[in-house]
Design brief:
Radius of gyration: 26 Å
Number of strands: 2
Strand content: under 5%
Structural class: mainly alpha
Strand order of the largest sheet: 1-2
Distance between the termini: 40 Å
Number of helices: 7
Shape: elongated
């Protein structure tokens, strides 16, 4: 049995996501601690050196604004990466649907799927598994993936449709940079959980999608094996001409 380097690459990517997440958290905590230390120093010297204290205060405000910009950049970057990984996952769903339909024309299957709602994608694949006995043993594995994708779908929609709003008054040391529903999206579903998504939650979503991709690739590999075996059996069972 050979080494599946694709699985190794996916697992390494998940590890990198976790490590990057921890490093960013450490960075923000360190930066906040430094700013608080400078703030205490300003309060301490302010009574004796008002000019120096004012200069330091201006510097702290500048550092705070730069930190806010950095957090925004990190948040936007994490959103872009998460959406790209979701798109990669959709490619795998198209490939699985193509196998269930026993067609090599994945482009045409993609035209159909990308023209309909994502929930319908999952329903179609679910029904196709029920009507393709060759892959019956893999239906349970698909059911678990299907359930996870249904849970992750709302987060994906938030990433695609929500935006960043800052609170009117934000402390130099406390930022609330997160995705929130658009101002006129007052649906109960959108307003129920605010703020919508912060960096920690987006990183967790990205990690979850990477795990789903790994499971989808394993499912696709298993389906390919079953199809190859079935094709070979049909070939050798065909009667030979006299």
């Amino acid at each position: 049995m050979g080494i599946d380097f694709r699985v190794i690459r996916i697992r390494l990517r998940v590890i990198r996501i976790r490590l990057r997440f921890r490093l960013f958290r450490l960075y923000w905590r360190t930066a906040e601690a430094q700013l608080k230390l400078v703030k205490r120093a300003i309060d301490w010297i302010g009574a004796e050196d008002k000019a120096g204290a004012s200069e330091l205060e201006a510097r702290v405000q500048e550092m705070g604004q730069q930190s806010k910009k950095n957090q925004t950049l990190v948040l936007y970057t994490s959103i872009g990466k998460a959406l790209c990984h979701w798109a990669e996952m959709e490619d795998l769903l198209v490939a699985i649907a193509s196998m269930l339909l026993r067609t090599h024309e994945a482009n045409k299957v993609g035209i159909i799927l990308y023209s309909i709602n994502f929930n319908v994608w999952l329903n179609i694949i679910d029904e196709l598994f029920l009507h393709e006995s060759l892959y019956a043993a893999l239906k349970t594995k698909w059911n678990k993936i299907n359930s996870r994708l249904m849970r992750l779908k709302d987060t994906r929609n938030s990433l695609a449709h929500h935006t960043i709003y800052y609170e009117d008054h934000i402390s130099t040391f406390t930022y609330n940079t997160s995705l929130r529903p658009a101002r006129f999206d007052i649906r109960q579903k959108s307003q129920k959980n605010q703020p919508s998504l912060d960096f920690d939650q987006i990183s967790k979503f990205d990690e979850d999608i990477s795990k789903v991709q790994e499971d989808l690739r394993e499912l696709l590999t298993a389906m390919t094996g079953l199809l190859t075996r079935d094709t070979s059996q049909q070939k050798y069972s065909e009667p030979t001409p006299d």
